[in-house]
Amino acid sequence: MKMNFVKSLLVIVLLTVGIAFAYVPADQDTIIVLGGYENIGNLENTINGDTLAGGNRIHPKRVYKLSKDQVYFVESPILFGGDNVDDTTSTLIIVGEKGGNKPMILTTPKDGGGAFTHSVHGSLTLKNMYWPVTTTDGKAAPLFQLKRSKQTLRCEDLVTEGVIAGDLFNLRPVKGPMNIFFKNCYFRDNTQFENSWNFAVFARGDNGEPIDTLWIENTTVSNSGLTFFGKLNPTKFVFFDHNTIVNTPKYVFFFNQFLEAYFTNNIFINCNWEGECLATYLSQLPDGVKSGVTNLDTIDAYIWDLGHGYVPEQEDVKWLSSNNLHFTSPFLNNYYAGQYDDNPADYPISTRDWGFLPEGVTTPTEVENVPPVFINEITQTLIDDYSMIIAENNYDNTLDPLMHTKGIASQEVGDVYAKKAMKDYGVMPATMTWTDDDKNLMAYGDRDPATFPGIETEDGGGFATVTDLIEDFSYDADVVSTIDARPLGSLQWFPNELASYDAVAALANIKNYMSTVTSIEKTDLVPVKYNLAQNYPNPFNPSTVISYTLPKASDVKLTVFNMLGQKVQTLVDAKQSVGKYTVRFDASELASGVYFYQIQAGNFMKVNKMLYVK
Known about the structure:
17-stranded parallel β-sheet; globular; 3 domains; 10 helices
């Protein structure tokens, strides 16, 4: 429902901040904040005015409650605490009433001003609300910034969209370890589709600022950049269970050191799909290797001691990656095959140096535009060497989840993604243009900050649950978790399953599952499944690209035969490490007809058919 902002901005606010707080007892735990046209600015004025003369909070844990089915208009920033305030233990708690549509918050800057970021000198809790980030006239800034030290960010049943500048939650200023909890959240269309390296759900400090607990359950993220960002941030504990991550051009996790971490029952669709510069493989790891979707690195004594004040032993690390599904859309195959290049035999060439090229490397920098591996080489080495570092029962590009709403819906949309990648890498031809129509094809919402989603519409009166929205990330594939027998991915899209989900019980079950797995010889574990092999296009003329994934280092032989069984060409005959590989077969000197390619990797062999049509 598009709101009448002319009317709303003409309304005179009847209650001043002083009147509002004259009758609120200091021990009252909850304040019900009035919304609607007649109370523009009431949310921030109520919170900002709830202080003593020196700036300390009257009630450091007061709950500000928003009413169901109500619209709130914010016209200036929330300023919770400050640098000169003595109290550093306050938590800003904003809770939406349940039982109807989520309270909805629109940002309408006062007097037509610019976007702003709410500042919290303390911890932050947000529950059950829809809070689009972009202002009603299309401007944007990070939604919240946390400051001071040892804070906690907690979000439950929060839906946001339109993070088009900076990060959703800027946590960089928080000093010392902090805790982050996301439960049943949906971070929707977190990008303006302009910068693949930006727009994280949260961004942590760059200088070893640690995380004690990162707890993310039943949360969905669509169209983010660096989804969860932290640079040199060692994390004590991670619980990442039943989440759905869709269409991330760069890294899902931009940190990789954990003491205890569980990545279980998740779905990753089109993650890091743009590929990486060959000279800057996995910029968050100093080892110069390709990124995986979930990564683990060896303990770095300096950053652990810097962040947590102690250094754990590598053998004490517990890390489990299990029952995750990683899938990349076949509508990106044209991009991966180089068919958008002037010279299709080459990868695209990046004209950017990204600011961190290794010594001796100059631009242009070659780009490997292939989908990422799920487990990278460093992580696989640790899995091989340590009994409590385990990956098993994962699906690495071997299973299409058959989502009701596809990550990329058609070849037309896949071509738009390829165009975006060329734009991001600085190689988009001058004959191409990047338009709002392209962005709209990539987005799930309507990208209109002045409308509210409703039931199966983007211009409605609000919604109670994400299943009311136009997208549906449930799936039809015949696969469930071997850990808890539930569907993979966020259970938001499976309401009956979500109703019975208990995170504490789920974690206990996962720990028990891991203890059972660690008692088994690693050679008996179900391995990451081979994806051997596929080629695109097929039929082809005059060439096709054969791709395959190795879940472990293998002696690989890839050979092409004709219909008579005669060897035409050996494309690969070498030992190869864990990863995704692509090889081009050029048949321009051969006759039209059916050909076969045979791939052998260790004890595994597979033969596929392809058709060359001149």
